[in-house]
Design brief:
The chain is α/β, with parallel strands linked by helices. The chain contains 29 helices and 21 strands. The chain is globular. The two termini are 26 Å apart. The structure holds pyridoxal-5'-phosphate.
């Protein structure tokens, strides 16, 4: 269904550069470093201040500057080159057309969150960023795919840390008119809506549409007439903690999402659930078939064949489960409509959990998907063990849960400077061959000092960025002097810098490095060989232990003895993530194995030549080859968590002291750390092709989508 131009799309632009408006409304620009530059060159300060929002930039930069740019030869050359690329992108023959010509009906990809760009805070972390990268890659491959998610009124919170280290959350209302979203309209030009029924009322949902290259993402929004105030808030934020709102939100996604696609005329051939939050789509699709005359069992059987389910949660408690009375409350009418009993309804997803019987979204999705997968090899083992009870007659290794290891979208996460170096050294079309191992063999021929120079450049960029963030916070008041120091103003752009950025959940063990504080002090303050650690990350607002962990770290960071070599940067998001994964030297990850399903931030770091120093969990267990980074601890399970923590901490300190620090400071006459650069090349060669979404999405197509689309 056509959606008309958004009112604010009518920018006042000189004709010669008028297509900037079109660019601002297709997220394709977010994975073109040259596009960001084109916007930034109009007014760099404003571009930064507006948080890289091109719609606001074009509205606020002023006609005089635009007129000037429209006459600037260099600007116009860059502009023309970019739009040539833009047009070629949409007209070239795609991978799907070439190798999967039969693939026509789209994959419907459902996710509670999508991480596409920092201006669209409709993601909280790794799950969302993976979904965003999946969409971008589907676009690059020309794979027919539509995304379904939420347009949150407030988005995920912004994080502030108080002087005492306590996390505060700011929930800002998003201004949709300044975002690249279009309201979806019906043939009369009115908002297209769908309804989801609840026990005593209907909730109406509006739809927004976002262009992600060739792919369309539809976002549901309950903040619309005629909903009650409470219902308008169902889609205000990510992941309500109270179960009643949570189940309603998930019903809106699963049921409302299917109805939205139907109303717009989509007939997906594959239904991919990114985590269990969307699993109610199973019931809605079964309802459609029952309405067409099938029995409930027949309907489920048919629905199952087209479903793909990806699980990301290695702990049972991480899966959403609802008490049966809540299911009864919200789904009684549904059960009556399709003529099944209460018990039949419960049976679809019944789980005998330690808390008693529940309705498990994981069970709902697993039982009713033909293809099921974990997100790394080790996570595959963990998942088969965890869900074995659903296949009691099978041996653990035969439990039908496969794995597709996650990847990252290269163009989104790789630094512009590095992309340019590759264009020069590996060929202009290197992006078309990302997942081909052969291409990356040529990386060995790139002179060491060229790569080292890029590394140094990116680290300086990080240091300057942190300084500007601090300046901004300081200028606006409420920032204590000790916070100025703790946020990175004293960072030395020439010192070995380690990054640690992730959600603050206790299993990630952000405090592992503090197990022996005296030893840490010696490490970071060693004369002539200083070491810095940059921390960042949010805790879920309802996660008290996570917030205490942030506080524990913040208190260490502030101590004068630490010499400001430890830094905590507020408000980890995709923007800060880009600076960190590109700018630090080492990416450290210390999850308590095997609880990290995959992890992706380490891949983002590795593709920028940053060396991973991580527990052999998730993706790193597959990527580590003994010389493309370092491991923390061993590839084994431990009897107790305390023993595991002690062994891992010892391994961490020892490797830092004996290998990482000496290697970083060992320089040749040109001041290049040769051995370090050899590892950088090794990590890029092993990680870029293998841990890309290029490899990942092709694997989904070849293993699951093709088969499902033929059912
Ligand atoms: C990549 C990314 C993540 C996921 O990283 P993990 O490796 O799973 O910790 C989380 N948040 C942001 C902002 C990211 O960019």
């Amino acid at each position: 269904m056509e959606s008309k131009a958004h009112p604010s799309q009518k920018f006042d632009l000189p004709k010669r550069i008028s297509r900037l408006g079109e660019l601002a409304y297709n997220l394709w620009w977010t994975w073109q470093p040259d596009a960001a530059r084109l916007f930034g060159q109009l007014d760099y300060d404003l571009w930064q201040r507006l948080g890289h929002n091109p719609i606001r930039l074009l509205n606020e930069v002023g006609r005089a500057r635009l007129n000037q740019a429209a006459k600037d030869k260099d600007y116009l050359a860059a502009y023309d080159a970019l739009f040539q690329k833009f047009d070629a992108y949409f007209s070239c023959e795609t991978w799907t057309q070439k190798s999967q010509p039969g693939f026509k009906n789209p994959v419907a990809y459902f996710s509670m969150e999508f991480g596409l760009h920092e201006t669209l805070p409709i993601y909280s972390g790794g799950l969302g960023v993976l979904a965003g990268d999946h969409l971008k890659e589907a676009s690059d491959l020309g794979l027919p795919l539509v995304g379904v998610g939420f347009m949150y009124m407030q988005g995920y919170f912004s994080q502030r840390i108080s002087e005492d280290g306590w996390q505060e959350s700011l929930n800002n209302m998003l201004d949709f008119s300044a975002l690249p979203v279009f309201p979806v309209l019906d043939e009369h030009g009115e908002r297209l809506t769908v309804e989801v029924e609840f026990p005593d009322r209907f909730v109406t949902l509006g739809l927004w549409k976002i262009n992600v290259g060739r792919v369309t993402l539809y976002l549901l929004d309950s903040n619309i007439e005629p909903n009650s105030e409470a219902d308008r808030h169902l889609t205000a934020r990510l992941y309500w903690s109270d179960l009643d709102r949570r189940i309603m939100q998930e019903l809106v996604l699963g049921v409302g999402g299917v109805r939205a696609l139907r109303v717009m005329g989509y007939n997906p051939s594959v239904w991919h659930m990114n985590e269990g939050h969307a699993a109610f789509l199973v019931l809605e699709r079964a309802r459609e078939l029952v309405a067409g005359g099938a029995s409930f069992d027949q309907a489920l059987e048919k629905v199952r064949r087209q479903n793909v389910f990806t699980t990301h949660t290695p702990v049972a408690a991480g899966n959403d489960e609802f008490p049966l009375w809540l299911i009864e409350k919200h789904l009684a009418a549904f059960g009556a409509e399709i003529n099944i009993t209460r018990e039949q309804l419960f049976d679809v997803a019944r789980h005998h959990s330690p808390q008693g019987e529940t309705f498990s979204m994981g069970v709902l999705a697993l039982r009713n998907s033909e293809s099921r997968n974990a997100v790394s090899e080790l996570h595959g083992h963990v998942s088969r063990k965890m869900w074995r009870f659903l296949w009691n007659d099978l041996e653990e290794e035969d439990v039908p849960i496969a794995y597709v290891t996650n990847g990252v979208h290269t163009s989104t996460w790789m630094a512009r400077r590095l992309q340019n170096l590759f264009a020069n050294r590996l060929g202009k079309d290197w992006v078309d061959h990302i997942d081909e191992q052969d291409l990356w063999e040529k990386l060995s021929d790139i002179p060491d000092d060229e790569l080292w120079a890029v590394r140094m450049h990116l680290k300086r960029k990080l240091a300057f960025h942190l300084r500007e963030r601090v300046r901004d916070r300081w200028t606006h008041g409420g920032f204590h002097p000790v916070q100025v120091v703790s946020s990175g103003v004293l960072l030395n752009p020439y010192a070995l810098t380690i990054g640690f950025a992730r959600r603050f959940a206790t299993y990630k063990r952000a405090n592992l490095v503090f197990r022996d504080v005296d030893r840490l002090l010696k490490i970071i303050n060693k004369p002539n060989m200083p070491v810095q650690i940059v921390f960042a990350g949010k805790a879920h607002p309802a996660d008290e232990p996570g917030k205490h962990l942030i506080q524990e770290i913040y208190r260490q960071v502030k101590r004068a003895e630490m010499g400001a070599r430890l830094v905590f940067v507020e408000d980890y998001d995709m923007n800060l993530a880009r600076y960190l994964v590109q700018g630090v030297d080492v990416w450290m990850n210390t999850p308590r194995r095997p609880l990290e399903a995959s992890g992706t931030s380490g891949m983002k770091a590795a593709i920028n030549g940053v060396l991973n120093f991580s527990v052999l969990d998730g993706w790193w267990r597959e990527a580590y080859n003994g010389h493309n980074g370092w491991s923390i601890g061993e590839d084994k399970d431990y009897e107790s968590t305390d023993a595991q923590d002690a062994r891992d901490a010892e391994s961490l300190y020892r490797t830092l002291e004996n290998e990482i620090i000496p290697m970083y400071y060992e320089r040749d006459t040109k001041d290049v750390a040769r051995e370090w650069v050899a590892r950088m090349k090794d990590t890029m060669q092993t990680v870029i092709p293998q841990f890309s979404t290029r490899r990942m999405v092709k694997e989904y197509v070849e293993k699951f989508y093709l088969q499902a689309s033929k059912k």
